[in-house]
Specification:
Protein name: 3-hydroxymyristoyl/3-hydroxydecanoyl-(Acyl carrier protein) dehydratase
CATH superfamily: Hotdog Thioesterase
Number of domains: 1
CATH architecture: Roll
Strand content: 35-45%
Order of helices and strands: EHEEEE
Number of strands: 5
Radius of gyration: 14 Å
Domain ApeI dehydratase-like: 4-81
Distance between the termini: 21 Å
Shape: globular
Number of helices: 1
Strand order of the largest sheet: 1-3-4-5-2
Pfam family, one: ApeI-like
InterPro entries: ApeI-like (IPR054545), Dehydrase_ECs4332_prd (IPR016962), HotDog_dom_sf (IPR029069)
Structural class: mainly beta
Largest sheet: 5 strands, antiparallel
Length: 103
């Protein structure tokens, strides 16, 4: 299993207008964070990929701390994104899914 950690920037551009007074990170931006973490550690996403399975289970807000865990088996990568609120508390599963990498 591989792992990356990051804190979602309070001024992340994806929060602009999404949603006023209740900002949350759009799913596509969360998926981009996963892909950037995998690319930075393992590479191999240059040829592109498909996303056959993707579930968003909990909102990610400004300043939240993320832990991205993944396992890779040949051309398939399964991941989970765990989120801890900026204010503290328990980690909750924010998203999970699978990427199919192109050879």
């Amino acid at each position: 299993m591989s792992r990356a950690r990051l804190t979602v920037a309070v001024d992340h551009p994806a929060f602009a207008g999404h949603f006023p007074g209740q900002p949350l990170l759009p799913g596509v931006a969360l998926l981009a964070e996963v892909m950037e973490a995998v690319q930075a550690i393992e590479g191999g996403l240059d040829a592109g990929c498909a996303v056959p399975v993707l579930k968003f289970l909990h909102p990610v807000r400004p300043g939240d701390h993320l832990r991205i865990d993944w396992t890779r088996q040949q051309q398939r990568l399964r991941f989970e994104v765990w989120c801890r609120a900026a204010a503290g508390g328990d980690e909750v599963l924010a998203a999970s899914g699978q990427l199919e990498l192109r050879a």
